[in-house]
Amino acid sequence: MKNLFDLTGKVAIVSGASSGIGVQFAKVLASQGANLVILARRYEKLVEVAKDIESEYEVKVLPIKCDVTVEKEVIAAVDKTIEVFGKIDISMNNAGVVDAVPVHMLEEEAWDKVINADVKSVFLMSKHVLKHMLNAKYGRIINTASMLGAGGSANIPTHSYNAAKAAVINLTRGMAASYAKHGITVNAIGPSLFYSEMTANTLFKEPILSYYNNTCPMGRPGNPGELDGAVLYFASDASSYTTGQTLFVDGGWTAV
């Protein structure tokens, strides 16, 4: 039987790949044979990640320092990918930040930081990979949204993050509808709470963590690897007739 999740020969770009779930996303794509371009602002950490993945899997990993909120840097990263690999099959738009500050206390600069990192980055990466995907008549764009983009929470005042991830969900739908006829799918993953460098000092702190555990039907945050299946589904031919969807991997949070 054909392995629908086989990514041998594919080329994937993963942003926000210097730590946290971005590293896990890169590893799971590599585990199925995809060559990688990994992006982040911290080049030294990217180099470490690249060495780790190449030592574990028989793939090539190209680390590129890139601030995905800056268009000229995104263009340079995409151009380098084409120069080295000749194509882009998968774009995993994962870069982002979170801020747990309510609107009445939120500074404009902090608002802009979240919106730029979480929404503008998806726009810029999609804009420049799509040009190559349209020529190839094939592509898989996967955006990292969040359960907090589907609703609010009385005890987690992540208002800028709510707005940003809701925008990602609907940008996903909009692009999916426009590019489906070109052989390009656009989907999103909506994680709940997963431990990362980003969440360690925000959502994993009390009282938010206890509130989350008491509210989530599964009673716990997500574990490493529990997003892998969703990533592989959207990146592979298993999802060839699926587009415009957000798959919430959230322990049942959005079900209640």
TrEMBL record:
Single Gene Ontology BP annotation: bile acid metabolic process
Family named by the database record: Belongs to the short-chain dehydrogenases/reductases (SDR) family.
Protein name per Swiss-Prot or TrEMBL: Short-chain dehydrogenase
Gene3D superfamilies the UniProt entry points to: NAD(P)-binding Rossmann-like Domain (3.40.50.720)
A molecular function (GO) term: oxidoreductase activity
Pfam families: adh_short_C2 (PF13561)
Keywords in alphabetical order: Lipid metabolism, Oxidoreductase, Steroid metabolism
